[in-house]
Every structure is written in structure tokens, then in C-alpha cells.
Design goal:
The structure is a single chain. The chain has a single domain, classed as Peptide Deformylase. It is 19% helix and 33% strand. The chain contains three helices and eight strands. The strands form two sheets. A five-stranded antiparallel sheet has the order 1-2-3-6-7, with helices on both faces. Strand 6 and strand 7 form a beta hairpin.
């Protein structure tokens, strides 16, 4: 449908809690998802949340096969996840470098839970539930944070582990988000 502008850090909508989707399988929801898919693909993203394109709805899209921004990570099936809920499967945390389409050109070292279970609904209102770990779990947690008005720099433990990609080039390894 359309490639939408991505809101950048500082925009007030990115700091708000998004509202749940109540109507599934609607033309409006399908148009939103199509725009999210087009926008994410155009920017080589691994995920995108509706608030990032100025829609305050609890909708995320994520997926990754061959992406130049993440050449060495495991594939993630394209998933539309609406009204997601995340359950932590164990308390093990892993640090990983993250970036964000709303904070272009920057990276930060962010702790995330290694293994989670997530559930929610697809565009048709069918229930989805998966147990995931590693990079897949990181992507889901990052995108879900957008729905709660949280940007990844808020999760960085040491601000020295946050900066521009060019400046961090020797510090950031290839297993990043």
C-alpha cells in the first residue's frame, strides 16, 4: 500500500501506551498492516510497531530472512502480532546491541530476557502463541516495548554503551538488533 514516515525519538506518540485493537479482519487493520510491512521492508527493519508510523494501536510486525542489517542472525518467520502479551520463561538476561528505525544511526547495549512466550492475535483474530529465545525473543521484546511507550535507550544500563553506529563500529558485534 504505502511506505510511511517513521516517527523519531522525541515525538510524543512514541512515549504513549498504544490502545488495544478491538476489530479484527477489517479493511482498516489490513491497510495498516500492509503499510507497516511496506515500511519495514523499505527500511530493512526486523520489526515495526504501529506507533512508529503514528498509529496508536497495539500492532507489531516482525520477521527476518535475508536482511543486510542483520546478516548473521537466525531467520524469524514474518509475524503480525496484535494485542501481544509476553511471559518470561526464565530470568536469564542477555546483553545485545540494538538499533531502532525511530532512532536512526544509533546503537545501544540492551539487556533482554533470553527466553519468552508470547501470544496475541493475527489480523484475522486467530490466536498465536510461541515460545522463542535469542534474537527472536529480543525482537519481540523490543517491538512490544514500543506499544508501552518505551524506547530501547531507556533500557540501557550504562550510557557508555550507547552511541552512533560509526563510533561504535569496533565495539558492536554482528549479533545485533
Amino acid at each position: 500500500m504505502a511506505i510511511r514516515d517513521v516517527l523519531r525519538m522525541g515525538h510524543p506518540l512514541l512515549l504513549q501506551r498504544a490502545i488495544p485493537v478491538e476489530a479484527f479482519d477489517s479493511p482498516e487493520l489490513h491497510a495498516l498492516i500492509s503499510d507497516m510491512r511496506d515500511t519495514m521492508a523499505a527500511l530493512n527493519g526486523a520489526g515495526l510497531a504501529a506507533p512508529q508510523i503514528a498509529v496508536s494501536k497495539r500492532v507489531i510486525i516482525f520477521g527476518l530472512e535475508h536482511n543486510p542489517r542483520y546478516p548473521e542472525v537466525e531467520p524469524i518467520p514474518e509475524t503480525i502480532l496484535i494485542n501481544p502479551v509476553i511471559e518470561v520463561l526464565d530470568e536469564q538476561m542477555e546483553d545485545g546491541w540494538e538499533g531502532c528505525l525511530s532512532i536512526p544511526g544509533m546503537r545501544g547495549l540492551v539487556p533482554r530476557y533470553h527466553a519468552i512466550r508470547y501470544h496475541g492475535f493475527n489480523a484475522q483474530g486467530d490466536y498465536i502463541e510461541r515460545e522463542v529465545d535469542g534474537f527472536h525473543a529480543r525482537v519481540v521484546q523490543h517491538e512490544n516495548d514500543h506499544l508501552d511507550g518505551i524506547l530501547y535507550p531507556q533500557r540501557i544500563v550504562d550510557i557508555r554503551d550507547f552511541g552512533f553506529e560509526e563510533e561504535l563500529a569496533g565495539k558492536v558485534d554482528s549479533d545485533e538488533y
